[in-house]
Amino acid sequence: MATANTNLSAYDKNTIPNAKDFRFGIVVSEWNHDITEGMFQGAFDALKDCGAINENIVRWNVPGSFELIYGCKQMTQSYDMLDAVIAIGNVIQGETKHFDYVCEAVAQGIKDLNVHGNIPVIFCVLTDNNKQQSIDRSGGKHGNKGTEAAIAAIKMAQLRKDSKF
Ligand SMILES: Nc1c(NC[C@H](O)[C@H](O)[C@H](O)CO)[nH]c(=O)[nH]c1=O
Ligand SMILES: CC(=O)[C@@H](O)COP(=O)(O)O
């Protein structure tokens, strides 16, 4: 189902684990910062709404979405007590094929961190054809992908905790 047919911000707290004991990392790309800041706020607010505390949320910034790979890798290695990391970026199609390479690299890089690492890394990267699509998905008419990513982070933190026993 396409995003246009749903609301990225919709969640039922009754189906979400309490996040009070979980620690989260959030790595935010500075490219298209108006969009990424909107997604960060959506993620931060959802984590808090589900019980997370400010002291358990750490944020790093990176220049662009391509650097999310290294930033998330370093965060998972610097803070081994984290329960989940959220990678926030916004890639918008330009005139060249660079969009394709950045999107593919970031998707593959975040995938690799999940395969080889011990901490779930949530793919909160908007890969849009134009700015309006990004606006619509970072707090606009289709909701906020940051909110969706926060809920995914909480669920994956709980799965990681449960899978240790
Ligand atoms: N065009 C966008 C970029 N490009 C920059 C790359 O992500 C990277 O920082 C650069 O190639 C240096 O390694 N990044 C975005 O996040 N969004 C874009 O639309
Ligand atoms: C994803 C990008 O790097 C892209 O937005 C840059 O724009 P252009 O392809 O026109 O150089």
From TrEMBL:
GO CC annotations? cytosol; riboflavin synthase complex
* Keyword annotations of the record: Riboflavin biosynthesis, Transferase
Provide the catalytic activity annotation.
Answer: (2S)-2-hydroxy-3-oxobutyl phosphate + 5-amino-6-(D-ribitylamino)uracil = 6,7-dimethyl-8-(1-D-ribityl)lumazine + phosphate + 2 H2O + H(+)
Residues involved in (2S)-2-hydroxy-3-oxobutyl phosphate binding:
E95, T96, R137
Q: Name one Pfam family in it.
A: DMRL_synthase
Does the record's keyword annotation contain Amino-acid biosynthesis?
A: no
Q: What is its EC number?
A: 2.5.1.78
Superkingdom, natural source: Bacteria
The catalytic residues are H98
Keyword presence, Transferase: yes
* Listed InterPro entries: LS, LS/RS, LS/RS_sf
Q: Name one GO molecular function term.
A: 6,7-dimethyl-8-ribityllumazine synthase activity
Physiological role: Catalyzes the formation of 6,7-dimethyl-8-ribityllumazine by condensation of 5-amino-6-(D-ribitylamino)uracil with 3,4-dihydroxy-2-butanone 4-phosphate. This is the penultimate step in the biosynthesis of riboflavin.
Put simply, this protein is called 6,7-dimethyl-8-ribityllumazine synthase
Tell me the gene name. ribH
